[in-house]
Amino acid sequence: MAIASSNISAQKLFTLEDLNFGGKNYKEMTPKRLHTTWYGNQLTTYDAEHFYSIDKTSGERSAIDDPRTKRTTLEDGTQQLEWNEQSRTWAYLKDHNLYVKCGDAEPVQVSRDGSREIVYGQSVHRNEFGITKGTFFSPDGKKLAFYRMDQSMVTDYPQVNTFERSATYEPDKYPMAGMTSHKVTVGIVDVTTGKTVYLDLGDTTDRYFTNIAWSPDGTTLYLIEVNRDQTDSSLDAYCAASGKKTATLYREHNDRYTEPLHPITFLPWDSKRFIYWSQKDGYQHLYLMNTEGIIERQLTQGNWVVRALAGFCEANHSIIYVSNEIHPLQMNIFSLNLDNGKKKRLDNGKGVHNASLSADGKWVVDTWSEPDVPRVTAVTNTITGKTTELLRSDDPWAGYAQPSFEMGSLKADDGVTDLYWRMVKPADFDPAKKYPVVIYVYGGPHAHNVEASWHWYSRSWETYMAQKGYITFILDNRGSENRGLAFEQVTFRHLGQVEMRDQMAGVEYLKSLPYIDADRIGVHGWSFGGYMTISLMTNYPDTFKVGVAGGPVIDWKWYEVMYGERYMDTPQTNPEGYEQTSLLNKAKDLKGNLLIITGMNDNTVVPQHCLMFLDRCAEEGTYPLFFAYPGQQHNMYGHKSVHLHEMITRYFEDYLK
Questions:
Q1: Rounded Cα–Cα distance for residues 310 and 278 (Å)
Q2: Which pLDDT score, from 0 to 100, does residue 4 have?
Q3: Cβ atoms < 10 Å from Cβ of 483
């Protein structure tokens, strides 16, 4: 199957300044966006000069005072963490220490031993397990739960700042797979008195604490604990006043890994019941659980996943959620009545939708796109289903020679599983010609590259390559996200192997097309995609003529604890898997032209990966090229990204075309 949209009659050509997010014209070339924020049930937006309230039934705007001006002003030299409107309190950092400031009262210093090694109020466990922050206000804002991370025992990775006259040592704490990890505790502070209690967690060595949530009355703190092997998780309750554990409500086990990503969410109309997320039936679904730890019923079910829980409509006892139940490539918004089980869709049934709910749940801001629809924002009444469109973006690429964007599916290497692909062809595509093809790949967990959004989720660089006469091909192999546990866990303990076989199924499909030049196949990816790029170049050296690998993992024993051990176990318990997946062992098999690129201060995939691969290539007599961006981390930001993508393009132009 192939679904295409194209405009080959336009004349203007793109530049990377138009297409790349670091480009000078990029903002003008992206679909218009309406930035909306709910303040309770008031829907607001803003422009460069004013804030506006939006009438939810008519879409009309009225100028209002900026709600943010009512927030307490903090002194210079602070790092804002979180604002709570109920108690008018800031949580912030100063000189590594945590403070809270309630209204006009004097700030309360919560910690005094903060440092690079003792970290307060910030994301822990390297942002795994759904953790994105480190402070959590109680519903009334009078208490603040916070993380304290002791990473003094974690090995330093020796990053260097080369922008000083004499380069300076600026190390990162980086716990590698199988090595000593940090220790995390959780504190609770009364924002008015400053009294602090720490949860009675005991020895926190090799234990992960995530998904922090409060009871509606603020007396109980809930969290999910995961063991270091990540096979077991438990939902635990702690007394907020004493820090003592009061109950373990629920446990889950998976022989490969369990991965809780979402905190519990209490029903607004019932303080004894909450929503619990679980993949225990093989797909990410929602369950109704009570404070006794009993699962009362499974709320969503099927061979699809819930992508987001937008919230609740208390008026009719409904939950509003986003899922891919219509199609694996879509995200659609649904309302589910918990009293009678009736479900209704709240959008048009197409595309990829994101939902933002009013405080009472009666209104949802729906922002979406479809393969041929750049972006639309509307507000919908969740009870009546009536929708008011607020913004429909014109095509910002109108007048340009646009490529065609196609989507299709093929069978995975197992011959059974459907995999989805995207293909981008030049605007003047001629099926009688032979085209070079670049396979763009990521392939790892918690990511996907194909969905039913604008241009099938195409990266703008693919358009640049199409303009230069290339076809680009992108396939979501097994191991990627949103298709269920079996789809993802098939890669367990041997990352990259199943993924490569699926990508090669894509190559065989490409070779079956009369307009693909099988002698001119290239591959490019970043991070896990960089790992996949070098894996494909060295495992299938006669297939891939050119590759560009950015920020690549080379050997999983140099990757971080939480992610690495979840998917590979430790080097000590899975030596065969680490040996099989190490690209050091494949350096001798490199035949094609390979460019490796990294940020010289990458703190995600540390430069050791690239450097040791280059060393092994020197020993083996193979010859990749290498480029490093000084001062840059895992991704190139700002205008450096334009330079990066021009460099990638030139390499393919030099060696593939």
A1: 17
A2: 46
A3: 22
Residues counted in the chain = 657
d(CA 250, CA 72): 40
The CA distance from 303 to 653, in Å, is 43
If DSSP codes are grouped into helix, strand and coil, which group holds residue 271? strand
Q: Is this structure's pTM higher than 0.90?
A: yes
Look up residue 578 and give its two tokens: 């680490």
From the CB of residue 48, how many other CB atoms can be counted at a distance below 10 Å? 4
Q: Which tokens sit at 543?
A: 């297939």
What does the pLDDT read at residue 358? 98
User: How many angstroms separate the CA atoms of 285 and 48, rounded?
Assistant: 41
Which tokens is 613 given? 């691969």
Average pLDDT value for residue range 434-440: 98
With H, G, I as helix, E, B as strand and everything else as coil, classify residue 183: strand
pLDDT score, position 186: 98
Q: Please give the pLDDT value at position 5.
A: 45
Q: What pLDDT, on a 0 to 100 scale, did the predictor assign at position 575?
A: 98
C-alpha torsion 186→558→531→409, nearest 10? -40
Output the six-digit token pair for 266: 């209490």
What does the DSSP assignment read for 201-256? ----TTEEEEEEEE-TTSSEEEEEEEETTSSEEEEEEEETTT--EEEEEEEEE-SS
Given a contact cutoff of 8 angstroms between Cβ atoms, the answer to whether 253 and 224 are in contact is: no
The one catalytic residue among 278, 602, 609, 645:
602
pLDDT at 1 over 70: no
The distance of Cα 313 from the centroid of its chain, to the nearest Å, equals 27
Residue 247 CA from chain centroid, whole number: 32
347 within 8 A of 353, measured Cβ to Cβ:
yes
pLDDT tens by residue, 236-257: 999 999 999 999 999 999 999 9
634 a catalytic residue? yes
The amino acid present at 649, given as its one-letter code, is T
pLDDT of residue 49: 87
Read off the DSSP letter of residue 73. Answer: P
**Per-residue CA distances from 550 to 96, 494, 529, 557 (Å):** 33, 21, 8, 19
Q: How confident is the prediction for the chain on average, in pLDDT?
A: 96
Q: Is 527 a catalytic residue?
A: yes
Q: What percent of the chain has pLDDT over 90?
A: 96
Q: Is 404 a catalytic residue?
A: no
Burial string for 394-419 (b: 16+ CB within 10 Å, else e) reads: eebbeebbbbbbbbbbbebbeeebeb
Out of 460, 527, 535, 582, the active site residue is 527
Given 317, 327, 494, 634, which residue is catalytic?
Answer: 634
Strands (E), 542-652: 546-550, 593-599, 625-629
DSSP state of 194: -
Which tokens is 303 given? 């061979």
In whole angstroms, give the CA distance from residue 332 to residue 366.
Answer: 10
Burial class, 231, CB count within 10 angstroms (exposed 0-12 / middle 13-18 / buried 19+): middle
